[in-house]
UniProtKB/TrEMBL annotation:
It comes from Streptomyces oryzae. This is DUF5133 domain-containing protein. InterPro entries: DUF5133.
Length: 60
């Protein structure tokens, strides 16, 4: 699993790109990176895993 700060950056980029349909390829790239970084195959699973990992890391 990637470092929480890296995941936070990826989540921020993902959210920003979702609002920009003309940047579809970048969104696909960030989605792929999130999946790889969280060991998942689906972006929804990746988002959940990244958010949970970030929350766990900063709760400790």
């Amino acid at each position: 699993m990637a470092h929480p700060d890296t995941l936070r950056e990826l989540l921020t980029r993902y959210e920003a790109l979702r609002a920009r349909p003309e940047r579809r390829q970048e969104l696909e790239d960030v989605s792929y990176t999130l999946c790889v970084s969280t060991g998942t195959r689906d972006i929804e699973d990746a988002l959940r895993a990244a958010r949970a990992h970030i929350a766990d890391a900063y709760a400790a």
